């Protein structure tokens, strides 16, 4: 029996990401890559620890077709990558317009078929 709690299909994908923190005293900006993505969230590799519920504005480039989506996320979990100063962070999408949601779902659907 699986302990999987995700409601959405998640695919492995190394996608370029531009991020900025929002609703924080000090803004942080950066670039990174995703580890996986679903319509409900994304796992990223990041150089700084951000506490639970930190909000980010993410811009994600979906593959070679150069489609860019944007959405607000919230940190759900984070852990240090062993032997590294980087962190794996799970972010939940909390605000994304319908057009970007549809583009993301279509991208995931196509990637699932291609695998």
Structural class: mainly beta
Quantity of strands, as a count: 7
Strand content: over 45%
Q: Could you name the CATH topology?
A: Thrombin, subunit H
CATH superfamily annotation:
predicted glycosyltransferase like domains
Q: Any guess at the CATH architecture?
A: Beta Barrel
Low-confidence stretches: none
Largest sheet: 6 strands, antiparallel, barrel
What's the CATH class, please?
Mainly Beta
Mean pLDDT: 90
* H/E element sequence: EEEEEEEH
Helical fraction equals 10-25%
Whole-number total of structural domains: 1
User: What global shape is seen?
Assistant: globular
Compute the separation of the termini in Å. 24 Å
What is the number of helical segments per DSSP (H or I, 4+ residues)? 1
Radius of gyration: 14 Å
Spatial order of strands in the largest sheet: 2-3-4-7-6-5
Strand-helix topology:
Layout: E1 11-12, E2 16-22, E3 29-38, E4 41-46, E5 55-62, E6 67-80, E7 87-95, H1 98-114
Antiparallel strand pairs: 1-3, 2-3, 2-5, 3-4, 4-7, 5-6, 6-7
